[in-house]
Amino acid sequence: MAFLLQLVFNVLVMETNKPSYPAIPRRTFAIGMGWAASLFALGAWGCTDGKSDGTPSSNAEADSEGSPEEELDKQVKQAMRRMSMEQKVAQLFFVPPESITFVKTVVAASEATLEALQHYPVGGFLYSAANFTSSDQAATMTTNAFLHGYNVNGLPLMLAVNEEGGYLNTVADNDALGAIAQPSAREVGNDGDTQKAGDRAHSIANYLSAIGLNTNIGLVCDMCSEYAPVESSPAEDAEEAASEENAEAVEATEVESETAPETGAGTEAEAEVEPEAGTETSAEAEAESDVGAERTDASEPEADSSPEKKPDAETGQDNKTSGRKNVTSEEAESDEDQTIYDKLDISPGELMSSRSFSNDPAVVSAMVSAEIESYTKSSVMTIVKHFPGIACPQDGSVMYSLATDAALRDKNMLPFTAAIDAGVPAIMVSNASIPCVAGETPACLSASVVTDLLRDELGFEGIIMTDRLDNDIMATHKGAAVDALRAGCDMIFCPADFESSYNQVLDAVAHGPLDEERINESVRRIIRIKLQSLPLSIKQ
């Protein structure tokens, strides 16, 4: 059986690694992966039972049939036995493909991707608009990536985008892919029809799976009423006051200039106006900060730059990408002089409101439940966000929720409870601060939020992942990956420096404060959810 499985993959990998990278016929891929799925269900890929000498398991074990839950437990144990601690730690990371391939922009999954996954068998890839140049190219790349990941460890690889509908889409706003954009969550919520919510999710799932994507990090459970208006932020109030003072000073100067000597008047006025210009520049710099949805990484040096800036697989100095211009996806980078709000011609409050179904927890809960059901039927894994609710930034670096403890439980957490009841496989925890629960600590780094609230109080048994760790909010948290795991998170999402974070986790396992059982706990959960939620073939 193991020979047959290897034969299937050898044929497919040979087909997919032709120099021209032609698109794999859907029927060919589906048949091949169907064989693989059948073999997997029979436990064929794990028939050696972890023995290095290849000795088959006993016939009694191979032929035994238990409940679906028992069979799943067996498959999880078999997978765990095959993995080294390095492989287990890699499985905890959900990253852009560039983070492990060390190239500027990945547009194919060739031998380099296979080698990267052999070294770093991460749990998932997050793609951006820059990774997709056409539907055929996208389908071939994701198919190859999936096969490479499966060939490395026998596990499905999460292949994801942020596709929310409305303003924030990686796929639908890429003209090269031909997908039809779906309405925003707010439009659907205002209509109040759960059928339309389910239809929206079904449409998104269809066009994602058509190009080989099996995961969407696009279902928002937040409510807009918890987003504090940016206009009232302390930083902006101070800035406005300073601007008014400058304006008054300029006005006073203009009055003085009427009686002052002509030669000095202009010079004095210019000197007074200059601070106002400086204030404007400060405001523009303030606006450069995002709502926690955009990437804020520095641009990547070119591969042929000075030696110290070349990609280095040992140090990971060049594991960030540049040139990503998809301003309507969560992984988009800002241009030097424009924010996402400038490009969309929308205020931060309006953007956040469009991403939320409603300010009524009952409406949000109903819509979220309908969409989860639709994604599940469409065989696309969905990850809901941002537990337990986020707020608009009050200035360029701080993000927090104004919810009281009572509001948190009576309102904010209700849609997440509904998502759990609907069977959501994974939940993203916000990097916002929740003062009523965890003080100034980002939620995804707080055991009070991750373990006490989400895992214990709500009883969530699926994958808990962090929000992005590569933005300004998390810049001061150098050991965020380790802290997130200590808090109870299972997956680390988009660390600013993958290799550094990966090594930090390994070091924490070897020397504390983490231990092997803590890693095993999360890896078991990840494997179980993958086998339950991710299809082993591309949807036709």
Can you characterise this structure?
This protein has helices at 2-16, 26-41, 59-63, 68-82, 85-91, 98-101, 111-119, 135-153, 185-191, 194-209, 234-257, 262-287, 340-344, 348-355, 361-377, 405-412, 414-421, 435-438, 447-457, 480-487, 498-511, 516-533; strands at 93-95, 124-126, 158-161, 163-165, 168-169, 215-220, 381-387, 426-429, 463-466, 492-493. The protein is α/β, with parallel strands linked by helices. It is built from 22 helices and 10 strands. Helix 1 runs antiparallel to helix 8, helix 7 packs parallel to helix 8 (135-153) and helix 10 (194-209) runs parallel beside helix 15 (361-377).
Number of domains: 3
Quickly name the level 1 CATH class of the largest domain: Alpha Beta
User: What composes the largest sheet?
Assistant: 8 strands, parallel
What does the overall shape look like? Answer: globular
Report the total helices.
22
Number of strands: 10
Roughly how much helix do the residues carry, as a percent range? 40-55%
Radius of gyration: 25 Å
Q: Strand share of the residues?
A: 5-15%
Oligomer: single chain
- Here the CATH topology of the largest domain equals TIM Barrel
Average pLDDT rating: 75
> Which architecture of the largest domain would the CATH scheme give at its second level?
Alpha-Beta Barrel
InterPro entries: GH, Glyco_hydro_3_N, Glyco_hydro_3_N_sf, NagZ_Beta-hexosaminidase
Organism: Slackia heliotrinireducens (strain ATCC 29202 / DSM 20476 / NCTC 11029 / RHS 1) (Peptococcus heliotrinreducens)
GO molecular function, one term: hydrolase activity, hydrolyzing O-glycosyl compounds
Biased composition (Polar residues): 316-326
